Amino acid sequence: MNKCNSIAVIIPAAGVGKRMLSSTPKQYLKIQGKTVLQHTVERFCSLSFVAKIVIAVSENDGYIQDLLPKLSSKVTLAIGGKERADSVLAALKALDNFKYPWVMVHDAARPCVLKSDINKLFEQVKRTQRGAILGAPVRDTMKRSDKYNQIKHTVEREYLWHAYTPQMFQTELLAQAIDCHLANQQVITDEASAMELAGYPVQLVEGSDTNIKITRPQDLTLAQIYLENSNNEN
What we know:
The chain is an alpha/beta fold. It has one domain (about 5-230): Spore Coat Polysaccharide Biosynthesis Protein SpsA, Chain A (Alpha-Beta Complex). The protein is built from seven helices and eleven strands. It has helices at about 35-45, 65, 85-95, 115-130, 170-185, 190-195, 215-230, and strands at about 5-15, 30, 35, 50-55, 75-80, 100-105, 130-135, 140-145, 150-155, 160-170, 205. The strands form three sheets. The protein has a seven-stranded mixed β-sheet with strand order 5-4-1-6-10-7-11, sandwiched between helices. A two-stranded antiparallel sheet has the order 2-3. α3 (about 85-95) packs across α5 and α5 (about 170-185) crosses α6. The radius of gyration is 17 Å and the shape is globular.
């Protein structure tokens, strides 16, 4: 099986983030004087095992060219698609899977991921040679509702996890899985779901619950706090 001493990272960044109530896509909103995307890229660019970072952007992206000079020389661009899976697949096809047999995929809007957690995920995959994702066990009581927001029943939270990114898999297998599921019009919410549907086992690696995804305006304030607190680590 292919070793994973040197990997590529894909960051899908073609979305607009309508829930942010901003005319600026959320990945280009600023925290501490830097865009969310800059913070996210910087989490990976200093890691020795990350050799290449592919950012998948919208064809009509009007921000990335001004940002590129501020990013690592490891960064290249790919044109993303309508959905996240389309963007990830486009970036995967831009990679040489012989040169980069393993890939991590990470949300552009998760700038608070800890480097220690990225390392933890990488070492787990390197040791087991099996795909894995960062996540965290569910600690709250979970309810399933109907379409009217009435509780139908309480969901047993044992063995339930929040799925985070990055998610790490063999480049060729992930590309094949996503390509197949898109052709069959199957819903893919993350890379792990594509691999699950293809029949591959996926490991869960526990990470910090500060690894939030910025989706609402108030998340920017929380992300700023987490970034300030993680400066000592990074």
